[in-house]
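ok trying this again, last paste got cut off
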Amino acid sequence: MKVRNSRRWAPRGRNRWIIAAAALVAAAIVRTALHPLLGPIMPGTAFLIAAVLVEYFCGLAPAFCVMVVGLCLADYLFVPPYGRIEVIDQSDIRLLVSYPLITIVVITLVERLRRAQYRAQLLSAVSQSRYEMLLRHDNERLLAGRATDEMHRMLHHIAQYNRSLILIKALDPANSAPPGSFAATAATATYSGIIEDESFRAGLAYGAKHSQVHRDDLVRVSERLVPGHHRLRFLSSGQDWHPVECVCERFTTSSGEFLVLRTED
């Protein structure tokens, strides 16, 4: 994979130039402190090290500036005759050839290594992002498959207990899918024999048994229906009300969450 941003690994702003200037000053101070001991030996070594360190932390442009300025300081301060640039001898030529050559080679290698490191970091970030996307898509696929299976189970449940159904309720939109998504189940529910009326649009669908349930009990379970067992009053043949055990089950489908209330007999 080609990464065009690999050359932009170095930080931006004026801080890197401040760091480069500080490194240049520090190299000059260190070489000046060692000058009584070293004399004209290795006049540009401290500036070479400073340029390499600046290249590693700040990038190519500050390192190149440190190299050029360091070359001038090394030739002026630490190559005899000291403090004079009128005379150019073999010491000056050796410094002008060896110091830039070695410094350019080293900072070029460091630049390539830093670009390769930054490219590897970018590729790692991209790979991590793609891996998370794959996991997210896989989870969504599993959830969709599970919701589809739950929808099939609910439809099979409706078909199996069609004659004992009391009502089907879509959960509140704040906790589940909006009742409008209930429309996908409406056609199947109507096809299965469930009575559809205006309340269906509000998230309720009444089954074949709802007309036999006491009005107060039907309103109560319609408003506060929860999964579990419920006891409702049904109209008997003698026009009397008798309690009947009912069960409510919850189904989580791709169209939302629904509660199905039916009789246990």
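PB: full thing came through this time. The longest strand covers residues 241-253.
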